[in-house]
Structure formats: structure tokens, C-alpha cells
């Protein structure tokens, strides 16, 4: 990443904060080690699609790797993660001199110093002299290709990995068609696209990427990897407007006119995209701090506002409509997709409740619509339900919205849907319905080895059942209150007091042996006992009691960091990337590169040692995050990891979504001003804040002394000032009363 221009402390409304966000953050990743597993996303917030350069072969999950030195196309993308690959992709690639369509042979060399990656704008100049530029709209993009004066220019549209169709309308300077590459979609799924060029074609034709056969003057082709090509004169600067639709070719044309029709050209489109991102960034305005900290913060804020993707479109009357990825029908209203809730319920959705409550309200409606259309609440949609990972965390989203005043849905319908989820196993993946649900109800835990990841499942099911109990309690639904009250404390059934760890348990009640808390896998998912023992989000006090009190609890927390960063592969039998990332972090057994332990630092607030949370959270932000291609300590996961950073930099974190509390950490900046949707502002001030003064010595909320280690969502949405005085010494007598502890089901 290049140098960031200096800015003054006083930030004006029109100051460009978008320059701080580096979309190449986290792209130096591969199968064995993730620094984010991201790609240089060019998109508007929560857009229906995004755009990226492609260095990998068609179908490769690692679409873009910083270590690559050639690019083979620029494509539409929806990819959540390389581990699930992508869908609905088509790409464009400029070629100079001679028409070359083969993706390996057309790949052009580049150097990163000739590359710009911003949320509103991607640009690269190839070594061959061609320049490509991209700027986004919500359901498409504008691109500009500049060819060298010495060679004629070609543009290749690649239909990617499955069936596709292209139609060339030279008279109207258009290409239209569709692609259907996908894994989790109904039969008949298509992504319809339309491209509109600003100048005529010298020549044109079609091709296919199986044998790379080229047909000149051909205007239509359908089949595996069907594509198109165009020719332009030497030195041409070609602009193209692109839009797509899951509904119909006509809807794609409507969207093109709606989203790009008002722009005279590329530069106008980019100015509008820049304005959208700048407005959002100014809504979370940080002041002070270093230029590097601002770059990391706004790069993370960018990533935190990409997923879930809108999956709805606006028809000719301006009304929202969508093709359902669940039942294949067209519906009125809103739909969102491309999100794994195991990754995001902990941080990204709580951040959304602060910044985007209107969208959250629509999202909750979409969750229940999805359940009606496929019979199950989503767990990981991409774009239909995949059932990826574990837990039934849609209920976390629904309850978190409700308790924070976002009540756009029927709580009764949500509880009915969740009850079905929690008492059945669906056909897709471990998180579609409930793996091991019969054992969970009959034994009080999921048995091992009948279910791999059983202890992790037990812990997350108990939290999800708490969320359902909480929603039922809030809404006076006694039936579901009674149903879910029985499971709230099931976490106790997998806690072994002899070892002070959460453990795998056999059907007969005995503990699974042999037991080594360093072993990964088995009864844990992508982690070990050191990571999962803390997964009692809703009853930390209950966990403290199980461990024999606060002194034992905080000593155990301390030991996470003092333990050596030893890896034992356990049931995996080989080193997976999450293990390597824990080792690289070099913070003992604290594995921030994956979700299970990311909340653990904040648990000191529940045991009268909040200053330790303050020190550790600042150390993690300083050591494990930056704005470069190695900017994350593991998979970024649809905004999950970046939202942890954004919230933590504000000095807040939602340890238990489904309650109205945020636990206080240590704010990174001297001042942050959050402008809310309701027009009010919540200001977080941290006097004398710097890299050494990480401890809170005194606090006030709206001028009144404040000792609690938490604030409520209403405190934020009402607007006001949370003021901290920062020091280089722990304030060991502050935040230590029972009333200062954040929410736990168990109160003593």
C-alpha cells in the first residue's frame, strides 16, 4: 500500500475519507495461511454484486492473490470465502494487438505500484500498456479500458465455468446474455447481464472456453463457457456500463437505466460511488490517531459494510422485487444473501444494528421469508441455504434486532420458525436444522463421537436457545419461554470441573478420552478446548461459578495468553490454516484468526478486572490488524473480523447479541463521532489517549460519572457523549461492583 496523504485533525464534511480504505487489505492469502482471504472488492455498501480483478483460473476459490503477477479478467463476484468459491460470475478482459481468448494465454502482467484499490475505484495499468478501471453501482458497474496507441484493442467476455449465453447487438453497441454458474441455487437459476458501450465495434464474434474456438461475426452463442469478443481501434478508450438481474433480461435493462442511465460517463459514476462511501465513512468519523490507524479503521469499516448482499431489485415502478434463491419464484419485497451467520452474528450484525437499523428491519423480514420459501431459517446462504458451519444463529439476529427496538417482524413467527429449526435436522450441512438435536434434548448435550464438533454444538445451541427464550420473554410468549428455559444452562453439561475445560462427552455420560486441551477438532470445530471453554455468551457469571469463582476464572483467562502457542492437530491430522494463524499471532492459545475466542478478552469485565480487557484488546488491534495485504490475522469472513476491529476501536463489543448491552474495552482514537440514522450523534471521547495510555481511569456518560463495564444500545441511539480519561496505569478500583458487570443469566 502506498503512502497515505496527511490530513488535518479537523475533518470537513467533504474531506475524502475513502482514500484511507485499501481494498487490497488481506489479499496475501493462500490455502495454507489466511491474512484475510479477501479480494480487491469494488462495490457499494451491501450491493447486489461486487467486482474484482481475477488472478486465479476460472473456478479457483482464490480469485485474487497478492503474490500473483498476472490478471486474467475482471469479473462480477459474490464470493463470501474461497472455501465456498463463487457464483453468477462473468468476466471481461482487455487484450492488445491480437485476439487471444484462452484464459491462460490472455493473462497480462502487472506490478502493484501500477494498481489502485479503493472502495469506489479500482485501476491497474498492465505492463503491455492497457489500463483497466472499475467503479461500482449497486447492481452493476462502469468500466473503462484504455488501449495503447500502437495496437488495436480487443475485449473478451468469458462465460466462466458452466452454461452461458451471449447476444451481440452491434447496432446498439450492446452485449446481453446470462450465466448460471452456481452450486446452491434452484434449477433454472440465471444471472442475466447487459453491457452497453460508448462506441461502435470494429468487429465482433463469439467463442467458448472449453476449446477456445473463435467465431467471427457470430452474434449469438449458448453452451458451456459461451462468451463474446469485440474489437476497437488503436488507442481506443472504451467505456462500458454493466448491470445484471436474477429476474429477467428486461429487468437487467431496467436496472441499467435506473442505476447508470443518469451518468454521462465513467467519471460521473465514480464521483457518485465516492460520495456514497464518503457519506458512510463520515457517519463514523474518527479524529486523532495515526494515519496508519485511520487506514486500518476505514479499511475495516469498508469490509464491514459489504455483506450481506442485497438480493432484491427495483422494478419499473420502483418497487422492490426479488427472485428467490430458495424456491425459484419471483416475490415482492426484500431479500439478502451471501452470509454465514456463525461468522457474523458476533460482530457484523450488532454493528449493523447501530449503523443500519432500517436495513436490519428489512433483513429480519427476509429471514422469515426465506424460512417460508425453503422450510428452514438460513444459516449460511450462498445464495440459497448451504447449512454451513454450526449453530442456529438466525435467532440471534432476530432477537438482537428485537431487543434493540427493530421490530419489523412477527416475534411469534420467528419463534415458530426457530422451534422447527431446533427440533429437526435439515438436508443441508450441519447448521441446517440441528445436528444431534435428539441427544441435546434427551441428554442435555450433543454426544461425542456421534457428532463431530459436539461440544461446540452444545455451547452454541444453548446460546441460541437463550436468544429464543429472550425473545419469548420480551414478547410475553409463555409457551416458548417454557420450551427454551429448559436448555439455557446446557453448557454446564459439557463443563468438566476436574480440568476446568469444556469437553466432549459420551452418550453414557463419561468424558471422552484421551483428553488434551491442545488437541484441535474432535468435539470442537476449528479450535480446541482453550478456545471453546469461553463460549457461554449469555451466562458468563455461570461460567465463573463453574470455575470456582472470579480468581480462578481470571487466572484461566490469563493462562490463555501465557500458554505456549503449541499446535496439536488432533482429529484434523494435519495443520489447517487456523492453526498456523494462531501460531503466527504468537499470543499463546489466543486464536483471534477464527471466531470462537474473539469475545474472550472482554470477559475480564465480568470478573472485576476490566483493565486487563483494556490492555489485551489494544494489543490485538495494534499487533494483528493493519491496512496492508497482510492486514488480518485470519479469514475476514463477510465482515466478521473487520467488524470486531471497528467495534473494538470504538471501545465497545457485543459479547452477547440478543441483549441490549455492549461491553466496554479501550477506544483506539481520541474522538469518534457516530451519526445515527435518526440524525442524533453519539460521541466517544478518550482524553490523553495514545499507544501507552490504554487504561480507562475515569468515565462519564452525558456528564454523569459512569463506572459500568457496559452501555446499552439505547444509550447510543439516544445520542450523547461517552467520555473516558485514559492512563498508562490500570484503575484497579474502577468497574468492580456487581452492578458494573455486564449481563449474565446467573446474577451471583
Structural description of this entry:
The chain is α+β, with helices and mostly antiparallel strands and about 750 residues long. The strands form nine sheets. It has a nine-stranded antiparallel β-sheet. The protein is built from 19 helices and 36 strands. The model is unreliable at about 1-10 (pLDDT under 50). The two termini are about 50 Å apart. Helix 11 (about 455-475) runs antiparallel to helix 12 (about 480-485).
Helices and strands in order:
Layout (H helix, E strand, L loop, with lengths): L49 E5 L15 E2 L1 E5 L13 E6 L6 H4 L1 E2 L5 E4 L2 E5 L5 E7 L2 E7 L6 E6 L4 E7 L4 E6 L11 E7 L5 E6 L4 E4 L3 E5 L1 E7 L4 E9 L3 H12 L5 H17 L1 E4 L3 H13 L5 E2 L2 E2 L5 E4 L6 E3 L3 E2 L1 E2 H4 L3 H8 L1 H18 L5 E2 L12 H10 L7 H12 L14 H6 L11 H21 L3 H8 L9 E2 L4 E2 L26 H4 L7 H7 L3 H13 L14 H9 L24 H15 L15 H11 L1 E2 L7 E4 L6 E5 L5 E7 L7 E7 L2 E2 L4 E3 H5 L2 E8 L21
Parallel strand pairs: 32-36
Antiparallel strand pairs: 1-3, 2-5, 3-4, 4-10, 6-7, 7-8, 8-9, 9-18, 10-17, 11-12, 11-16, 12-13, 13-18, 14-15, 14-17, 19-31, 20-24, 21-22, 22-23, 25-26, 27-28, 29-30, 30-35, 31-32, 33-34, 33-36
Instruction: Enumerate the spans where pLDDT stays under 50 for 5 or more consecutive residues.
Output: 1-10
Helical amount among residues, as a percent range?
25-40%
Q: Alpha-carbon distance between the termini?
A: 50 Å
The helix-and-strand class reads alpha+beta
Strand content: 15-25%
Largest sheet: 9 strands, antiparallel
**Mass-distribution shape:** globular
Number of helices: 19
Q: Please give the order of strands in the largest beta sheet.
A: 6-7-8-9-18-13-12-11-16
For the secondary structure, the number of strands is: 36
Q: What is the residue-mean pLDDT, rounded to a whole number?
A: 97
Rg, nearest Å: 26 Å
